[in-house]
Specification:
39% of the residues lie in helices and 10% in strands. It contains 14 helices and ten strands. The protein has a five-stranded mixed β-sheet with strand order 4-9-10-5-6, with no helix packed on it. A three-stranded antiparallel β-sheet has the order 2-1-3. It has two domains: 201 residues, no CATH class; 153 residues, no CATH class. A hairpin with a 6-residue loop joins β5 and β6.
């Protein structure tokens, strides 16, 4: 049976989904939890886990990746949760091996992950939710009174990838700030070295490292370095259309992000629950440490800059008569290639033979800059940095585990790496009590 025949059979089995929801933008999780076991969230076949594909093969793989991701999000009744092993497990690992205490590394990592999911809920190594739904609900009102709540984050609705009015979408897909697309001369590159183009990353880093008190929507500030504010008489909104769902030809999702200070969590309409802004995060996440939550959110945006670089490199934000206009490239941002590119991350061999180094490698560059920023933060804030760190070896060992295709084997190998290095695995993993940090 040929490759294309097998792919055609899979497409027929999956069927094509007819979806019209405007709430979906990306799907960064690679571990999906549910019954009967842990699965790959984008469960593309081995033949698709490479960019060495002929045109027709690429089209089939894009459709499979898109269909499978949409099925996991909208159709499946067995998926009860999930996470990204880049955002959570890898950030937790790198923070610990650099020298952060396990509880500090844990807080950084769960806020990194929560930027995608809106709230981080803890799961055991077997994919079982640690806190019950009732306990999670109680944490929303009794967060400071129940130590179990330290295992999860509060809700962070303002920074989620689905929020098109708060600017949350832009944290995950930060288009460059220019009057035309200005892709980097080479990839991978250090996007933090171009703060005039990658404004949101620069602004989030200033906020996370304590040099600026605010995170601003889109990173857009005025000449006085204050967040540009929208007023009834002078509306300032980032308008745009974000490509959505189609395999190649994109359909738009409207972006109407109101400028000002970044919202961390949206309040209720009746005002019973106040809106939480970036400068108020310390009190909101307590008894977690606000500075670690900020660092986690910044690292998420930085990691996504690499994960979504095809789209972000080719897209831009520029001033317009009504504020700002976001221009997202229809081809580079289409969801078929977007989902397949996520399939080329965790669960795929990160090698030059398998993926084009100067184009489709995203995990290695993302973890490299994550390591650099965690080390810089540790050195700036008195964290006792471990001696004799070998960055190249650390990343190589981590990538080897992340490349394992089978999700259960990948997770078990990651837990084994923690234990091999004398580090503390996540709660409920590798014999660590589920309530370890509570």
């Amino acid at each position: 049976m040929t490759f294309l025949t097998r792919m055609a059979g899979k497409l027929f089995a999956y069927g094509l989904l007819s979806l019209c929801s405007s709430s979906v933008f990306a799907f960064g999780q690679d571990l999906c939890f549910g019954q009967p076991s842990i699965s790959n969230c984008i469960n593309i076949p081995t033949e698709c886990r490479t960019d060495k594909l002929e045109f027709k093969e690429l089209q089939y793989c894009k459709q499979i990746a898109l269909t499978d991701a949409m099925n996991a999000m909208f159709v499946s009744t067995t998926v009860t949760g999930g996470r990204s092993m880049v955002h959570l497990d890898s950030t937790y690992y790198l923070a610990q091996i650099i020298g952060f205490k396990p509880v500090e590394a844990y807080q950084i990592a769960i806020y990194d992950e929560a930027a995608d999911t809106g709230q981080y809920n803890a799961f055991n190594q077997d994919g079982t939710q640690i806190l019950s739904n009732e306990e999670i609900q109680n944490c929303a009102v009794n967060r400071n009174k129940d130590k179990k709540c330290l295992l999860i984050t509060p809700m962070l609705s303002g920074v989620t990838r689905f929020n098109n009015t708060s600017g949350g979408m832009l944290l995950h897909l930060p288009a460059r700030y220019a009057d035309q697309p200005i892709p980097p001369a080479t990839y991978p590159t250090d996007y933090l070295l171009t703060p005039e183009l990658d404004k949101y990353l620069a602004n989030l880093k200033d906020w996370a490292f304590g040099t600026y008190p605010y995170a601003c929507v889109g990173g857009i500030t005025d000449e006085a370095h204050q967040c540009v504010e929208s007023t009834p008489s002078h509306p300032a909104i980032i308008h745009g259309n974000i490509p959505f769902l189609a395999t190649d030809v994109a359909q738009p999702v409207k972006l109407n992000a109101i400028l000002g200070e970044q919202i961390i969590n949206e309040g209720s309409k009746g005002g019973l629950t106040p809106t939480v802004y970036a400068s108020q995060i310390d009190a909101y996440v307590y008894p977690h440490r606000g500075e670690l939550a900020k660092l986690g959110l910044f690292l998420h945006a930085l990691q996504d800059r690499y994960s979504h670089h095809h789209c972000s490199d080719a897209s831009y934000i520029a001033p317009s008569e009504h504020g700002y206009e976001a221009h997202f490239d229809n081809t580079a941002c289409a969801q078929g290639i977007h989902m397949l590119a996520h399939g080329w991350e965790a669960g795929t061999r990160q090698s030059d033979i398998n993926l084009i180094q100067a184009d489709d490698h995203t995990v290695g560059p993302a973890l490299s800059v994550t390591y650099d920023q965690l080390l810089a933060y540790a050195e700036s804030y008195g964290v006792r940095v471990n001696q004799h760190l070998d960055k190249e070896k650390i990343l190589s060992e981590l990538l080897l585990r992340l490349s394992i295709e089978d999700p259960v084997e990948r997770l078990n190998a990651m837990v084994g790496l923690f234990k091999e290095k004398g580090l503390v695995p996540l709660p409920g993993h590798g014999g660590v009590p589920a309530q370890y940090f509570s």
